[in-house]
């Protein structure tokens, strides 16, 4: 069976119920885990009743990019299937999804470089009349490329690029950015046979004006993908320069009046009026042309040019030095003694375990983000006959009891003179952790307190952060590429992308 996890970011809208009902009523039983990421900043936790294998994760807000990242990082399946919370899958959607993914696996076996599959989108419009401007905009989703209303990616490919860029705060451009980073323009994302329905959401008079905030995101796309990013993403160029011209004409009219230059004021006013009328007519002509729609188009057509220009300037300034997105590491490896807990030489007594200050809280922050945690620890006391493996296991159990669960604990029991390849500074423990978790070296970080931790990480191709203690030698501190005063500070840096 093809393994996928269905990830749904949600704001708890009523449409979520229709999505869950459609998944529960599929022609083939949905045996995949479903992760709902509640992206509301507060409120009571969502507790939907569903026969699905359902998990709810709270993000505390942050937008759909961050919500999707929280979802896929918790998954352990080879595929991740994203759905929006306002779509309704066809009754055979899951059956066709499995067939689409099986074809992709076959293509990979035949040498094709494919990493994703997009579903087909249907946007139903009201019958018996022309669509409104808002409805036409939603209808455009049918021909949009790589939208995450229904898109499945290989999990390892998502991890390799750090997932969605969380600097995109809205459901806009974050999907195109990810697709371009994953090479969609080179045919790495195919179109499947499954289908979803995307209803037109209700909208108030000013919905199109609020959409102008997306102009700032366009400048982030430009900073990341170059001035021709629209061509690469098959995205419309839009009317930005027309909006700038209309806004400049309005400013000229106001400036002319303030300076008591009637000729300049009149020229600006005419330019503004002509530009606004042309824009309004382009939006009114294809629509129903009823009183409410005409009023809405006239009002918003006057307000949109300055709003679009303002958000464009804001985006240009904010993202002028934007660098490629890295995201969070998928795996953080932690030395035990001196890093997670106070160093008690050759400790075999769980009662002597004392966590480092703030360790539990710092580790829980990584867990909430879906980052995997594992311990890598030298325990030469076993090889020297000072400890038993059972004692080491009991101490490790107490560490997990006090600091929370770890995905795994990797121990080297050998003495230094044994010449093993697992004792740090050799990379064996780190490579074992990477191999068993399936995490690439460049998506992992090791936090330790001495030079052998840093050297083991470097030998395995993993970044390291040194958190010195009094037993750390000065030359080890000087040689470390990254340092932090405490474990909490090290994890703060990782969460800020400083790794």
Automatic annotation (TrEMBL):
Subcellular location: Cytoplasm
Protein name as it appears in the record: D,D-heptose 1,7-bisphosphate phosphatase
Source superkingdom: Bacteria
Lineage: Bacteria, Bacillati, Actinomycetota, Actinomycetes, Propionibacteriales
Main localization (coarse): cytoplasm
UniProt entry tagged with the keyword Ribosomal protein: no
UniProtKB keywords: Carbohydrate metabolism, Cytoplasm, Hydrolase, Metal-binding
Stored NCBIfam families: HAD-SF-IIIA, Histidinol-ppas
UniProt family annotation: Belongs to the GmhB family.
Entry-linked InterPro entries: Glyco_trans_2-like, HAD-like_sf, HAD-SF_hydro_IIIA, HAD_sf, Heptose_bisP_phosphatase, Histidinol-phos, Nucleotide-diphossugar_trans
């Amino acid at each position: 069976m093809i393994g996928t996890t269905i990830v749904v970011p949600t704001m708890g809208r009523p449409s979520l119920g229709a999505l869950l009902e459609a998944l529960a009523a599929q022609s083939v039983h949905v045996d995949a885990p479903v992760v709902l990421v509640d992206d509301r900043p507060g409120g009571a936790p969502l507790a939907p009743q569903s026969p699905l294998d359902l998990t709810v994760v709270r993000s505390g807000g942050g937008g759909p990019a961050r919500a999707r990242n929280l979802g896929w990082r918790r998954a352990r399946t080879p595929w991740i299937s994203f759905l929006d919370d306002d779509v309704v899958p066809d009754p055979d959607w899951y059956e066709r999804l499995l067939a689409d993914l099986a074809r992709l696996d076959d293509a990979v076996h035949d040498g094709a470089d494919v990493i994703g599959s997009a579903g087909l989108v249907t946007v139903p419009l009201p019958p018996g009349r022309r669509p409104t401007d808002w409805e036409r905009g939603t209808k455009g989703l049918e021909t949009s490329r790589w939208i995450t209303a229904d898109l499945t990616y290989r999990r390892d490919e998502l991890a390799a690029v750090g997932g969605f860029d969380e600097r995109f705060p809205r459901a806009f451009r974050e999907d195109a950015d990810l697709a371009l980073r994953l090479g969609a323009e080179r045919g790495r994302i195919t179109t499947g046979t499954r289908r979803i329905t995307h209803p037109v959401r209700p909208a108030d008079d000013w919905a199109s004006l609020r959409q102008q905030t997306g102009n700032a995101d366009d400048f982030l796309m430009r900073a990341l993908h170059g001035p021709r990013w629209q061509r690469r993403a098959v995205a419309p160029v839009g009317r930005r320069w027309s909006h700038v011209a209309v806004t400049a004409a309005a400013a000229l009219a106001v400036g002319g009046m303030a300076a008591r230059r009637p000729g300049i004021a009149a020229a600006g006013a005419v330019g503004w009026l002509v530009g606004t009328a042309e824009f309004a007519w382009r939006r009114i002509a294809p629509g129903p042309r009823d009183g409410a729609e005409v009023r809405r188009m006239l009002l918003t057509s006057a307000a949109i040019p300055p709003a679009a220009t303002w958000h464009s300037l804001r985006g240009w300034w904010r993202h002028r030095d934007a660098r490629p997105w890295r995201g969070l590491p998928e795996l953080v490896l932690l030395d035990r003694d001196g890093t997670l807990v106070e160093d008690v030489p050759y400790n075999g007594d769980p009662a002597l375990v004392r966590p480092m200050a703030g360790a539990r809280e710092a580790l829980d922050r990584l867990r909430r983000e879906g980052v995997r945690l594992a311990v890598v620890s030298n325990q030469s006391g076993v090889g020297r006959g000072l400890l038993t493996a059972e004692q080491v296991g009991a101490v490790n159990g107490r560490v997990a009891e006090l600091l929370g669960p770890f995905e795994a604990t990797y121990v080297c029991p050998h003495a230094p003179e044994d010449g093993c390849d697992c004792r740090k500074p050799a990379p064996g423990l780190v490579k074992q952790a990477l191999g068993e978790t399936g995490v690439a070296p460049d998506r992992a970080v090791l936090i330790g307190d001495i030079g052998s931790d840093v050297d083991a990480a470097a030998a395995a191709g993993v970044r390291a952060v040194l958190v010195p203690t009094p037993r750390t030698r000065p030359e080890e501190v000087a040689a470390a590429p990254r340092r932090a005063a405490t474990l909490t500070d090290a994890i703060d840096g990782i969460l800020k992308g400083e790794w």
